UniProtKB/TrEMBL annotation:
<dbReference type="Pfam" id="PF00270">
    <property type="entry name" value="DEAD"/>
</dbReference>
<feature type="domain" description="DEAD-box RNA helicase Q">
    <location>
        <begin position="4"/>
        <end position="32"/>
    </location>
</feature>
<dbReference type="InterPro" id="IPR014001">
    <property type="entry name" value="Helicase_ATP-bd"/>
</dbReference>
<feature type="domain" description="Helicase ATP-binding">
    <location>
        <begin position="35"/>
        <end position="211"/>
    </location>
</feature>
<dbReference type="InterPro" id="IPR027417">
    <property type="entry name" value="P-loop_NTPase"/>
</dbReference>
<dbReference type="InterPro" id="IPR014014">
    <property type="entry name" value="RNA_helicase_DEAD_Q_motif"/>
</dbReference>
<keyword id="KW-0067">ATP-binding</keyword>
<protein>
    <recommendedName>
        <fullName>Helicase ATP-binding domain-containing protein</fullName>
    </recommendedName>
</protein>
<dbReference type="GO" id="GO:0016787">
    <property type="term" value="F:hydrolase activity"/>
</dbReference>
<dbReference type="InterPro" id="IPR050079">
    <property type="entry name" value="DEAD_box_RNA_helicase"/>
</dbReference>
<dbReference type="InterPro" id="IPR000629">
    <property type="entry name" value="RNA-helicase_DEAD-box_CS"/>
</dbReference>
<dbReference type="GO" id="GO:0005829">
    <property type="term" value="C:cytosol"/>
</dbReference>
<dbReference type="GO" id="GO:0003676">
    <property type="term" value="F:nucleic acid binding"/>
</dbReference>
<keyword id="KW-0547">Nucleotide-binding</keyword>
<dbReference type="InterPro" id="IPR044742">
    <property type="entry name" value="DEAD/DEAH_RhlB"/>
</dbReference>
<keyword id="KW-0347">Helicase</keyword>
<dbReference type="GO" id="GO:0003724">
    <property type="term" value="F:RNA helicase activity"/>
</dbReference>
Length: 265
């Protein structure tokens, strides 16, 4: 694939300045495929793994659109990014703060498990770009804290995980209360573009262009993989045994919840 530099794209100058400051000069493959199309106003359904630069792709597109479009008076919630987990929502918000360095857009972040009223109070002050998880977004929407009347950009990240975690009915609830697909810019990213993900895309997007970025290599050459079939109550003892019998100085243990992490620790 031909290398594309960010300065070759028609991005807002403030965004190009930020990219230069953080040392981003060339697009990753997913950015090179998606950005030119999105900047022309085309909807995108992209297949891309974590670590491919997809977050920067949809954040750059979102900020460019919001900065460049004419702002109507008394508008609220111009863009929304929906993530399946609070950890992902928090990370997207951190990245968004970087691209908001030279603009005065109001960013919002909502997710479950934290002070409900504090988040609600922040939203009541107004927000241009809201990042959040499905359940908490629906809670505030039903309360009338915000509405989608002026929503111009919609991003659905890790769409396949929305299905896996049982959020798809919530996603459809939110999307059906937004302006018609042709009245907004839509971006969907997923590790896989399965039938059910594409069904969602075609139902709630405006003739999206499909972008597939296949990882060059799934695992590194020097990494070996071993699968152990073990009962849940035996996992900790197996982990301890493996740590004792392997001659390692640094180890990373991945778990799927905070509770399990605390238990292992």
């Amino acid at each position: 694939m031909k290398t594309i530099e960010f300065r070759q794209l028609k991005l807002d100058q403030s965004l190009l300045r930020i990219l230069e400051e953080i040392g981003f000069n060339e697009c990753t493959p997913v950015q090179a495929e998606c950005l030119p199309l999105i900047l022309k106003g085309h909807d995108i359904a992209g297949q891309a793994q974590t670590g491919t630069g997809k977050t920067a792709a949809f954040l750059l597109s979102t900020f460019h659109f919001l900065i460049s479009s004419k702002l109507q008076e008394n508008t609220n919630l111009r863009a929304i990014i929906i993530a399946p987990t609070r950890e992902l929502a928090i990370q997207i918000h951190k990245d968004a703060e970087i691209f908001n360095r030279y603009s005065d857009l109001k960013l919002g972040l909502v997710y479950g498990g934290v002070d409900y009223e504090k988040q609600r109070a922040a939203l009541m002050k107004g927000v241009d770009l809201l990042i959040g998880t499905p359940g908490r977004l629906i809670d505030y929407l039903k309360q009338g804290v915000f509405n989608f009347k002026h929503t111009e950009v919609v991003v659905l990240d890790e769409a396949d995980r929305m299905f896996d975690l049982g959020f798809i009915s919530d996603i459809r609830y939110l999307l059906r209360r937004m302006p018609k697909p042709e009245k907004r810019l839509n971006m969907l990213f997923s590790a896989t573009l399965s039938y059910r993900v594409m069904e969602l895309a075609y139902e709630h997007m405006n003739n999206p262009t499909l972008i597939k970025i296949n990882p060059e290599k799934v695992t590194a050459d020097r990494i070996s993989q071993i699968l152990y079939h073990v009962a849940n109550d035996e996992k900790i003892s197996l982990l301890i045994s493996l740590l004792k019998c392997t001659n390692t100085t640094r180890t990373i243990v991945f778990v799927n919840t905070k509770r399990v992490a605390e238990k292992v620790w």
